[in-house]
Amino acid sequence: MASAAATLLSVSAPLAAQDTTRFLPVNLHGFLQIYYRSGDPLVKDGYRLRKADIKFSGIISPRLKWRVAFDGSKVLTLNKTASGLGDSLALTDVAVDQRSRILQDAALTYTVNASLAIDVGQQILPLSMEGTIPSSAIETIERTMFIIERSRAVGLGDVRDIGVSANGLVANTVEYHVGMFNEAGDGAGSIDVNDQKTIIGRVAIHPRFAPGFQVGGSGGFEGGLPEQHRERLAGEIQYRQPRFTLRSEAMSARDGALHRFGWYGLGAVRPTPRLQFAARYDSWDKDRSGETSLNDAYERQIVAGSSYVLDDTGAKLVLNLVRQTFPNVDSIRAGTILLAAFQAVW
Fold first, then answer.
1. 288: which DSSP letter?
2. Where are the domains of the chain?
3. Measured between alpha carbons, how far is 65 from 86 in angstroms, rounded to an integer?
4. d(CA 284, CA 277)
5. pLDDT tens across 139-186, in order?
6. Above 50 in pLDDT, residue 20?
7. Cα–Cα distance between 108 and 313 in angstroms, integer?
8. Fewer beta carbons within 10 Å, N or C terminal of the chain?
9. Do 337 and 322 meet the contact criterion of CB atoms below 8 Å apart?
10. Contact partners, residue 104, CB within 8 Å, separation at least 6
11. 3.40.50.720, 3.20.20.370, 3.40.920.10, 2.40.160.10: which CATH number matches 57-78+85-298?
């Protein structure tokens, strides 16, 4: 018995040590943002839990990493299908909208070499520059309208889907991201609804002779039936230094018969490492075929704001004043909106 116990201990000890080495350590990162919105004629005043991101990540082997991220602020929504029943409508089907689930990222990254890494799983799509910047690093409380406004279709940045992508930086100059995904951001958390796949890519040039400057673009395509046809095309330019940032992007998109177009210009100044002032002009046409109601109206926003980092822990106060107008539809009231956010990143 003693020899059997010694043998068992000699086998289990290395296994336990191996398991501990394999699964630890696990890195934990998070971002929490709460804001108050006031003055919007289209939305009631009140507080909102805007972001509650939690990300777990770790190393499986020298070349293989994993990550899983959640956004606890998302509200689960349902897709409902109704059909005519006599002179009334009857609910025939209800399904969870997979985009509203709290799961964000769930992916593996395999590093091939210094200029190539392969991501497999649910991940952020390489679409638009601002759409790939972390929420904690955005100069304003809300991202540009072509990303956050999703009443007619999926957003054109900061969206996720399931697929495979290749990412890297060549000669410290050419940054590239290209992948094949189920859909263009509306298939996260579910299987593909058709046989077509969406190809999305982004390239940014960082000239060595101009540190802080970059120029590039992104785009995507999915074929198939007319109602499934997707196109994305965007251009980007930025010049960033420790004291200031200048950035502009334009995005055009087609989803079946729906054509959308948006662009913005942003400037930010940082007099001190903790204090920042920012301004953005934002133009967004959610449906270029009509100007009849809020559902298809062209919208403009002018955003001015400031932020202050309270301490070294990452806590920040942000104030934004937003002037919102709909110049082509007289029936929609313009508004001046105050946003005040308290946020922290760790």
1. T
2. 57-78+85-298
3. 57
4. 23
5. 999 999 999 988 888 889 999 999 999 999 999 999 999 999 999 887
6. no
7. 29
8. N
9. yes
10. 53, 55, 69, 70, 71, 122, 160
11. 2.40.160.10
